[in-house]
Amino acid sequence: GLHIENGSTATASDNIFTDNVSYPAVSSSAASALSGNSGSGNGKQGISIRGTISKIGATTTLSANELPYLIGKQSESPKVVAGSGVVIGAGSVWKAENNDSKFEVLGTLELQGGSADGGAPADSILFTSLADSEPAQWNGIVVGGGGYIYGGGFTLRHGGKGFGCPTCAGIFID
Questions:
Q1: What does DSSP say about strands 59-62 and 47-50: parallel, antiparallel, or unpaired?
Q2: How far apart are CA 97 and CA 76, in angstroms?
Q3: pLDDT band at 54 (very low <50, low <70, confident <90, very high)
Q4: CA 68, 74, 75, 80 torsion: positive or negative?
Q5: By the 8 A CB rule, do 64 and 90 touch?
Q6: With 0-12 CB in 10 A as exposed, 13-18 as middle and 19+ as buried, what is 59?
Q7: Mean per-residue pLDDT for 1-26?
Q8: What are 96-146's pLDDT values in tens digits?
Q9: What residue ranges in 56-139 does DSSP mark as E strands?
Q10: Most buried by CB count within 10 Å: which residue of 32, 35, 39, 159?
Q11: What is the DSSP letter of 99?
């Protein structure tokens, strides 16, 4: 598979990953632009997104893939750092692997899930748990001081596990 890490910047588009032991692709503390990637027969059927996923003064774009993006455990959860931006494109699917997984926003997160011209369904971005089966299976999206989310066209399911409160919201503003 593909492993991008430690502050690297890479673009991976329209690749096919098959029969890898674990994840077909991993972006760990890297600002990677990913789109159109697919695969089958991998140990983990998704693209692992971990750690800092943006660079200060820049914008990272994460577009739709046939493989979902996988949000790791809390210590490895994806983070948009202050002074940076991440754009999540229409059709993207994000699945939390653990009940302590979260998507942390300290910078700017733009959700481009719907389009005024009718090109994408109004709720084409999906954030959910890996099991996608019942409430409170992951923390959800956590917006910290200075963090900002805008745009729309998304569905968030099964969040709200975190902070010792199984009834908390799937989007937590800190």
A1: unpaired
A2: 11
A3: very high
A4: positive
A5: yes
A6: middle
A7: 93
A8: 998 889 999 999 999 999 765 656 666 799 999 999 998 888 989 999 999
A9: 59-62, 69-71, 79-80, 85-89, 93-96, 102-105, 108-112, 125-129
A10: 159
A11: T
Location of structure tokens 């760990």: 28
Structure token digits, residue 4: 């991008």
- Please state, in angstroms and rounded to a whole number, the distance separating the CA atoms of residues 8 and 15: 19
Burial of 145 (0-12, 13-18, 19+ CB in 10 A): exposed
- The CB density around residue 75, as the number of other CB atoms within 10 Å, is 8
* Neighbour tally for 61: CB within 10 Å: 17
Kind of pairing between the strands at 9-13 and 140-143? unpaired
Copy the structure tokens of residue 168: 């908390």
Look at the chain and count its residues: 174
> Distances in Å between the alpha carbon of 71 and those of 54, 75, 129?
15, 11, 9
Contact 58, 33 (CB under 8 A): no
Per residue in 57-100, pLDDT (tens digit) is 999 999 999 999 999 887 889 999 999 999 999 999 999 998 88
